[in-house]
Amino acid sequence: MKIAIVGISGRMGQEVLKLLRLDEIGGGVSSGTSDEEFEKAIKNCSVAVDFSTPAISIKAAGHCAKHCVPLVCGTTGFSDEEFERLKSFSKHAPILYASNFSVGIFLMSKLIRMSEKALDDFDVSIIDRHHSGKKDSPSGTTLFLASQLEKSPQIVSLRVGGVAGDHVCSFTGDDEEITISHRSFSRKVFASGAVKCARWLVSQKNGFYSLEDYLNAKK
Amino acid sequence: MKIAIVGISGRMGQEVLKLLRLDEIGGGVSSGTSDEEFEKAIKNCSVAVDFSTPAISIKAAGHCAKHCVPLVCGTTGFSDEEFERLKSFSKHAPILYASNFSVGIFLMSKLIRMSEKALDDFDVSIIDRHHSGKKDSPSGTTLFLASQLEKSPQIVSLRVGGVAGDHVCSFTGDDEEITISHRSFSRKVFASGAVKCARWLVSQKNGFYSLEDYLNAKK
Amino acid sequence: MKIAIVGISGRMGQEVLKLLRLDEIGGGVSSGTSDEEFEKAIKNCSVAVDFSTPAISIKAAGHCAKHCVPLVCGTTGFSDEEFERLKSFSKHAPILYASNFSVGIFLMSKLIRMSEKALDDFDVSIIDRHHSGKKDSPSGTTLFLASQLEKSPQIVSLRVGGVAGDHVCSFTGDDEEITISHRSFSRKVFASGAVKCARWLVSQKNGFYSLEDYLNAKK
Amino acid sequence: MKIAIVGISGRMGQEVLKLLRLDEIGGGVSSGTSDEEFEKAIKNCSVAVDFSTPAISIKAAGHCAKHCVPLVCGTTGFSDEEFERLKSFSKHAPILYASNFSVGIFLMSKLIRMSEKALDDFDVSIIDRHHSGKKDSPSGTTLFLASQLEKSPQIVSLRVGGVAGDHVCSFTGDDEEITISHRSFSRKVFASGAVKCARWLVSQKNGFYSLEDYLNAKK
Predict the structure, then answer these.
(1) N or C terminus of chain A: which is more exposed, having fewer CB within 10 Å?
(2) What is the residue range of C42's domain?
(3) Which residue numbers of A are catalytic?
(4) Distances, alpha carbon A96 to alpha carbons A199, C57, C200, D25, in Å
(5) Which residue is closest to D172 within chain B, CA to CA?
(6) Which residues of B touch A108 (CB under 8 A)?
(7) Which residues have CB under 8 Å from A124's CB, separation 6+?
(8) A122 and A38 in a common domain
(9) Is B142 an 8 Å CB contact of chain D?
(10) Interface list for D 158-187 with A (CB within 8 A)
(11) Per-residue pLDDT of chain B (219 residues; tens, 9 = 90+)
């Protein structure tokens, strides 16, 4: 199975590249790639994995649709209109979109929803810890997790040393506490999630998929 | 609402007693209570909470059935025959049985089942930590949690100081880890769970209930 | 050994009371106690433990000085002048003063100072977690811990459920992290620390002692 | 400053290599290197970093002594006689030896000694967690930590997923707990520690040094 890497010069593209066996690398495209080479790279592959910009993602989705190549997209920053455009190509090829490809974080979002229902009189808090170079605080993942809850949790963030990413969500009652935590050992986990999705997506029908579809299918 | 405490002289009975308001205490019975007083205590109450021995629990269940008084039972050590006996009384009064009344631990058992399905190639481990006076190791709760999993987790136990009860279950992959942990702040949590069940059970139909029924009803 | 409890009607006084054996309770005084009874209570004891108000503490210290009774004082809120007054009585009786009697927190303050020196290029953070009823944030203990460090740590606080008191101080580098954490199982720990100090103080010379003196003596 | 890497083909040698700037790499030797090239590599450098085997380490130490080149050695498995041999070369060049170059773990060993003294009636436990491929259990580092304590701690080990290395040492009393934990984000930390020692060692006098000497000097 050949995999095309869209956005190969970016940090995530490089992480994806490191994860593939030599014989799996079907080609890489980035902002400087000519249209002809771009299409050719997609056409020659069984699936494309994309961490780039909205404009490049939409171009990639167009080529994927034309050549029936599944697309895994982890690009962020789409306008609503752009996102609808991306989605429309899924009539002609399977597309899986996620803003976070860690299966652990996705699972965590379900675990905390379930916990909130069972422990509705408990206080909820989220601690996120990331490396000192991370500028946004709280993290996008923390905001995603908080969005899954009915009540607003107390949120605190620390930016220290080289922490790849820790998220700790606690449900605290008067007498007991349930804590659900996720720890990334390295940033590789996000690339790894996207590649796993790609391997699954090649055998799916046309349509627009989420990480949840992938996880449900594996059950 | 008056609550009868069956096994009032035991450690758990005392914890239940501490949790009730004066006007809720409907009576207490223990191994030394005469049959007449035992029946009278049950008859005068809206619900009974029982942490005792199988023989006393069955006696309590009989009186509860006769007077249509709901029973919350947390006694352990029933033989199969005894347990069936207990169960049979639930035709005449609602009975809720659980070996552990912490809603947190019950939730945890569901969270780890869900996690195992989503992360089936991850290594699973459970750490249990309890006070140095606890003799069984691993804890009954650890065995209960492990019984909910398909694969056998690595289990380790520590018996130190005055720890009321910590259980930590981790799902560890190459690049990320999900940890679900439960911490009891004191032994009160188990009594508190039983009393909450009792308050719910008074408005239920006859039948045999588990902690799961209580939790599902609250959703 | 008889122990007098100064401030016996307060929360901490009650915790101290619970910790003593019946034959150790030498008397209790509070704001409503007459001068005569106050002095008598102190006079009849081998040591006094005081969690009250500055005015009462100074009165207690006066009686202790007169009758050569050691005093363990955990009262807070002294003015500088009041504190000097308290101190002056230590010429006539040993007085040990501390704003926090948990030996664990005291040890932690030394461990983090040592860690900061060894890991001077690491980022430092403190998380404090307390029950939802606690109004001050960060906790006084967090401020005490931070005051022991040369650099200002990142500090975050959560107020959730019934947490008795957790303090977590991390030193985080690019590749590794040292974390020193303290967990109170209940508020009893503070009363327990004061009583331990009292038992030690009875065999000390006149003078003004800190928790550090007690800990150093035990080495 | 040029650094020679002894044992450059091994896992740790490769980690050291990754950490150096191109202009710092003074040469690399391994089991297959000729004597002449070996000596030349050492001679041309300001300092040598060695993770190899006892025989190669002793050879390296000989060349270092001859050419007054400082040596940082992290090789394990020396016999007593071999270790004395290594040590003897430190008359002619500074040699720093350590079985673990993580400054965090070294600090931890001092923190737990200090904690044991202050909390002598607390129960002590160590949890070590490493990746599933690690064969020895408990880890060498756990044994090192335990050797620093007077009492034997309870020790448990987990071998799960891709954990680089977690060590958690708790001192647990009836009412409170101090926990000192160390977490390696990656194996790089050990190479990084050795390189830091190398940069310090170049300006030291002849003699046999430990990681403690390096840490004390930095205070």
Answers:
(1) C
(2) 3-101+188-218
(3) 130, 134
(4) 11, 70, 68, 45
(5) B161
(6) 178
(7) A112, A116, A149, A151, A153, A154, A169, A170, A171, A172, C160
(8) no
(9) no
(10) 162-164, 185-186
(11) 899 999 999 878 999 999 999 999 999 999 999 999 999 999 999 999 999 999 999 999 999 999 999 999 998 778 889 999 999 999 999 999 998 899 899 999 999 999 999 998 999 999 999 999 887 799 878 988 999 999 999 999 999 999 999 999 999 999 999 999 999 998 788 899 999 999 999 999 999 999 989 988 876
Residues B94 and B193 placed together within one structural domain of the fold: yes
Q: Looking at the 3D structure of chain A, how many domains does it have?
A: 2
* 3-class DSSP string for D59-110: HHHHHHHHHCCCEEECCCCCCHHHHHHHHHHHHCCEEEECCCCCHHHHHHHH
What Å distances lie between residue A69 and A145, C210, D128, CA to CA? 32, 73, 46
The domain that contains A86 carries what CATH number?
3.40.50.720
Position of tokens 């040591």? C47
The per-residue pLDDT for C177 is 98
Q: Do the beta carbons of residue C161 and residue A123 sit within 8 Å?
A: yes
C63 and C21 part of one domain: yes
pTM of the model: 0.82
Check C163 against B186: CB less than 8 A apart.
no
CATH number at residue A154: 3.30.360.10
Asked if C148 and C112 sit in the same domain, the reply is yes
Residues A85 and A112 in one domain: no
- Which partners does chain C have (≥3 C-beta pairs < 8 Å)? A, B, D
φ/ψ (deg, to 5) at A157 = -135, 140
For residue B139, give the 3-state DSSP assignment: coil
Nearest partner of A173 among B32, D199, B107, judged by Cα: B107
Answer yes or no: are the C-beta atoms of C167 and B167 closer than 8 Å.
no
Provide the shortest C-alpha distance from residue B6 to chain D (in Å). 30
Who among B102, B107, B118 is closest to A215 (CB)? B118
Across the interface, which of C154, C162, C173 has its CB nearest the CB of A162?
A: C173
